[in-house]
């Protein structure tokens, strides 16, 4: 019986996982997820699914197959439809079950759905010694790896279903088959740490919806990269005509406006890298998000120069995401394409039309495993 319950629980988890993956685009584009940073669980609403069953009632109540009549008689249509407005009912309504999914599971499902590869090491990257990572459970193993909590729960289930459990004398004695042990696998741990530097255009042409799209996408990019590196630092830059470094809260809540000089952000990002992050010791990921509206063609040329002369040499990859805005020109993405083409080593670009395009944009940036 205990095995049957575990199988049902496993099947239920697969159903939940399937429901979440089916609605992944909705969850990814929900602003509520940003508030989950640092929290382990996410509540996911799942519609209740009732299992069909026969219901036996008193024979005297009548109905199809009961009462008077001969074989072949037509079945009546029942009561006529009533007239007038519908009245408030007192019947049970549809229920929604909220299940808890860990953020790690959400990120894992994101990777599966988008088929994201693990980040590949740079050519100069070294590995630490191979480490044992304890992530599984098995029924055999050394006593030093015994999982006491799982063993106790398994023994408790067995005693309940066999009738051995006495609530007045709740002594739980695990049998050999109850014992559960941690299992491990050997993984290579990257020696290098990583830094993400997010740059966001907060000028007047970037509306609140465009800024929210950027924040949602950076949230999930950040979450995925945290699974790839044991040490990850994140820096935030906002810019209009002037760039400044801000903390995470300011990045996710600022509502500034003004003109746009993109090179101000690139110069500040370059300064941060040169001051704090040796490219030989760090994997560097600069991300820039804008609506593509720059102040002048001269400033755009300055941006293209610093990309070619600096960022392509020190960063794992430079990512530029262009959010569509009714006020933005979108010219910067065109300038990047004209200058570097579609296959420039070290550059990934993505066009983000709306919230529904966030998933595709994440795949653009992370799908190559750089």
Short key terms for the protein model shown above:
single chain, 370 residues, alpha/beta, Rossmann fold, 3 domains, six-stranded mixed sheet, two-stranded antiparallel ribbon, 10 helices, 10 strands, 36% helix, 19% strand, extended
Protein described:
This protein has helices at residues 2-22, 24-28, 103-114, 148-162, 208-228, 248-253, 262-276, 297-314, 331-340, 358-366, and strands at 41-47, 96-102, 131-138, 181-187, 193-201, 232-239, 243-246, 282-290, 318-323, 347-352. It has 370 residues and is α/β, with parallel strands linked by helices. It folds into three domains: 2-51 and 95-114, no CATH class; 131-159 and 170-187, no CATH class; 194-366, von Willebrand factor, type A domain (Rossmann fold), CATH 3.40.50.410. The two termini are 48 Å apart. 36% of the residues lie in helices and 19% in strands.
Low-confidence stretches: 47-52
Any idea what the CATH superfamily of the largest domain is called? von Willebrand factor, type A domain
Q: What structural category characterises the helix and strand content?
A: alpha/beta
How many beta-strand elements?
10
Taking Cα atoms only, what radius of gyration do you get, to the nearest Å? 29 Å
Q: If strands are numbered along the chain, what order do they take across the biggest sheet?
A: 7-6-5-8-9-10
Mean pLDDT: 78
Count of structural domains: 3
Percent of residues in helical segments?
25-40%
The biggest beta sheet reads:
6 strands, mixed
CA(first)-CA(last) distance: 48 Å
> Can you tell me the CATH class of the largest domain?
Alpha Beta
Q: Give the overall shape.
A: extended
């Amino acid at each position: 019986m205990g095995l049957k319950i575990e199988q049902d629980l496993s099947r239920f988890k697969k159903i939940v996982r399937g429901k979440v993956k089916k609605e992944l685009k909705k969850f990814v584009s929900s602003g509520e997820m940003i508030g989950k940073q640092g929290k382990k669980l996410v509540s996911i609403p799942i519609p209740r699914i009732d299992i069909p069953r026969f219901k036996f009632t008193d024979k005297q109540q009548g109905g199809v197959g009961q009462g008077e009549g001969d074989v072949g008689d037509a079945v009546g249509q029942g009561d006529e439809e009533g007239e007038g407005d519908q009245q408030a009912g007192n019947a049970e309504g549809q229920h929604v079950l909220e299940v808890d999914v860990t953020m790690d599971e959400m990120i894992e499902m994101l990777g599966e759905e988008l088929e994201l590869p693990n980040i590949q090491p740079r050519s100069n990257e070294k590995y630490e010694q191979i480490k044992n990572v304890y992530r599984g459970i098995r029924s055999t193993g050394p006593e030093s790896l015994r999982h006491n909590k799982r063993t106790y729960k398994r023994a408790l289930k067995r005693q309940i279903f066999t009738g051995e459990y006495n609530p007045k004398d709740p002594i739980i004695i695990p049998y050999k088959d109850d014992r559960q042990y941690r299992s491990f696998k050997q993984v290579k741990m990257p020696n290098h740490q990583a830094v993400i530097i997010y740059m966001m255009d907060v000028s007047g042409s970037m509306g609140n919806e465009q800024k929210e799209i950027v924040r949602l996408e950076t949230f999930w990019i950040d979450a995925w990269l945290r699974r790839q590196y044991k040490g990850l630092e994140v820096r935030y830059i906002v810019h209009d005509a002037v760039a400044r470094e801000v903390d995470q809260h300011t990045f996710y809540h600022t509502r500034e406006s003004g003109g746009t000089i993109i090179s101000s952000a690139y110069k500040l990002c370059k300064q941060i890298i040169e001051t704090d992050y040796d490219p030989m010791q760090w994997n560097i990921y600069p991300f820039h998000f804008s609506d593509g509206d720059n102040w002048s063609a001269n400033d755009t040329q300055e941006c293209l120069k610093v990309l070619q002369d600096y960022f392509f040499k020190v960063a794992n990859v430079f990512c530029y995401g262009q959010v569509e805005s009714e006020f933005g020109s979108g010219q910067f993405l065109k300038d990047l394409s004209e200058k570097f083409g579609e296959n420039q080593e070290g550059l990934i670009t993505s066009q983000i039309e709306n919230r529904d395009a966030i998933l595709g944009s994440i795949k653009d940036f992370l799908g190559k495993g750089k």
